[in-house]
């Protein structure tokens, strides 16, 4: 349910975005400095008009206006430039389908992502995070963007296919994904087709990347089908194939394909960016990093495999990362009938936008919004009185994988932080260029081991040493961020 404060007495303001160019509108402002452009919009009104070539679109700049768009899914259906571009890629799967197909699809897939299923995956998530940092060396360089994407792709491979996507295919999916998300954003900001039909190297790369992802998924499905009903596994592919075998379910072969492509891409990409962003932000905020290390050390001293709920500070780091740098930063909708939004009449077929990034960076919702402050989300804090925190959207089209993604990121962060701290390379400067998703795409850092165990120290002795140093600190929450003991 929406937790926006109803504000029926309010006089809504409607405006136009700055930086308009005659005849083409705002694509230049949106493509050149997208985040600054978004941050400039709330000052123009609660609902702000943006022109993208011939297209007139409206951005919901007030949380209550965004909630109206998200909750009234019949009037504000999936559509507009982003979803028009996503459909050739994801077909008619759960992310892209229209409202009339949604309920059946959601009912089919929801059980595989319910909280108890997510809890069943916790060990696998921890194991994959251990694999991700197993080869790191003291002082060595780590390609954080590549490592996080490989990690989340392996996790999705497990959940969707019980690992039957081979290692090379999983790695290729990651590489193709990077090409796809870049191409998607340009295609969203320029909603005319002609420039993308020209066979430029970039357009060819994009088309090839899309074709390869489809082929890779088809091959996994074909292999499983050859195994017959006996080849069924307890994974999402198993759910889809057994539904497809029941004629009454309405699931076609095409839908099996579309749902798998949808889940593979959304599940791997956004979570990888969230984890990479968290590692990046922690390295810039030593106090937050110290508190996270203190929590991980104290909790794992008593419980070597804690769940996400046992790591409240680590979870707050994930929440603040999702606020500060939401991987899904811009989405579109299309009106299915004439309606009124923030007092503005919108005809049927109008494009409406909402942006978690814009809503999360409005100082009216979050004081000092540019500051990375995980404490906003600690139990008891009242961080979000306006209901502006929407990293996973809201309403019936809310992210299917929200619990899954938070668990995966929290456990990965705790697993890595128990062993390593990552540092930026000298001279590193942030160059965050949003694509269809937002986050660091070529982040390289160096790894420093956090605990120097003498060569050959057996794991139990080492964890006892940790326990002795952390227990004293954990008793006094005021010193939880103290860096005096185990941070070597
Ligand atoms: C940090 C990671 C993630 C973020 C930030 C994120 C964000 C979002 C957002 C904002 C939406 C709504 C889009 C809109 O309103 O147009 C969405 C939808 C969706 N997401 Fe995620 N997502 C994440 C991870 C995942 C994972 C791990 C999965 C699957 C395993 C997933 C599957 C989906 C699906 C299927 C939908 C469409 C739901 C529906 O319409 O019923 N996402 N996600």
From TrEMBL:
Residues 450-488 are annotated as: Disordered. Keywords: Iron, Metal-binding. This is Cytochrome P450. Residues 461-474 have a biased composition (Low complexity). Belongs to the cytochrome P450 family. Coiled coil: none annotated. Pfam families: p450 (PF00067). The lineage of its organism: Bacteria, Bacillati, Actinomycetota, Actinomycetes, Kitasatosporales. InterPro entries: Cyt_P450, Cyt_P450_E_grp-IV, Cyt_P450_sf, Cytochrome_P450_monoxygenase.
């Amino acid at each position: 349910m929406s937790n926006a404060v109803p504000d029926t007495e309010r006089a809504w303001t409607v405006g136009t975005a700055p930086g308009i160019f005659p005849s083409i509108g705002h694509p230049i402002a949106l493509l050149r400095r997208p985040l600054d452009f978004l941050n400039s919009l709330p000052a123009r009104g609660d609902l702000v008009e943006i022109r993208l070539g011939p297209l007139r679109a409206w951005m919901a700049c007030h949380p209550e206006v965004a909630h109206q768009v998200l909750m009234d899914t019949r009037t504000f259906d999936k559509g507009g430039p982003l979803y028009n571009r996503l459909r050739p890629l994801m077909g008619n799967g759960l992310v892209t389908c229209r409202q009339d197909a949604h309920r059946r699809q959601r009912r089919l897939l929801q059980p595989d992502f319910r909280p108890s299923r997510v809890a069943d995956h916790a060990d696998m998530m921890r194991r994959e995070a251990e694999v991700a940092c197993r080869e790191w060396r003291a002082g060595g360089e780590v390609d954080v963007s590549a490592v996080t994407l490989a990690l989340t792709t392996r996790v999705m491979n497990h959940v969707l296919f019980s690992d039957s996507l081979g290692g090379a295919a999983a790695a290729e999916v990651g590489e193709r994904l990077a090409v796809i998300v870049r191409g998607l954003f340009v295609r969203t900001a320029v909603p005319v087709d002609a420039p993308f039909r020209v066979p430029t190297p970039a357009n060819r790369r994009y088309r090839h990347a899309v074709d390869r992802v489809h082929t890779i998924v088809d091959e996994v499905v074909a292999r499983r089908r050859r195994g017959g009903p006996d080849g069924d596994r307890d994974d999402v592919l198993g759910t889809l194939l057994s539904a497809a075998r029941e004629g009454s379910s309405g699931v076609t072969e095409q839908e099996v394909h579309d749902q798998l492509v949808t889940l593979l891409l959304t599940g791997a990409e956004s979570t990888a960016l969230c984890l990479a962003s968290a590692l990046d932000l922690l390295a810039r905020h030593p106090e937050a990093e110290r508190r996270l290390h203190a929590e991980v050390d104290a909790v794992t001293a008593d419980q070597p495999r804690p769940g996400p709920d046992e790591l409240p500070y680590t979870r707050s780091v994930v929440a603040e990362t999702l606020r500060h740098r939401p991987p899904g930063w811009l989405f579109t909708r299309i009106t299915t009938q004439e309606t009124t939004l923030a007092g503005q009449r919108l005809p049927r077929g109008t494009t409406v936008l909402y942006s978690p990034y814009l809503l999360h960076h409005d100082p009216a919702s979050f004081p000092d919004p540019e500051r990375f402050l995980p404490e906003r989300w600690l139990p008891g804090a009242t961080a979000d009185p306006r209901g502006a925190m929407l990293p996973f959207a809201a309403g019936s089209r809310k992210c299917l994988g929200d619990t899954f993604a938070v668990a995966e990121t929290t456990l990965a962060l705790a697993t890595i932080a128990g062993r390593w701290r990552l540092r930026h390379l000298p001279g590193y400067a942030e160059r965050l260029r949003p694509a269809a998703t937002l986050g660091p795409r070529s982040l390289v850092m160096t790894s420093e081991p956090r605990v120097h165990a003498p060569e050959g120290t057996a794991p139990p002795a080492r964890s006892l040493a940790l326990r002795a140093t952390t227990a004293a600190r954990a008793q006094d929450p005021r010193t939880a961020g103290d860096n005096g003991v185990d941070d070597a």
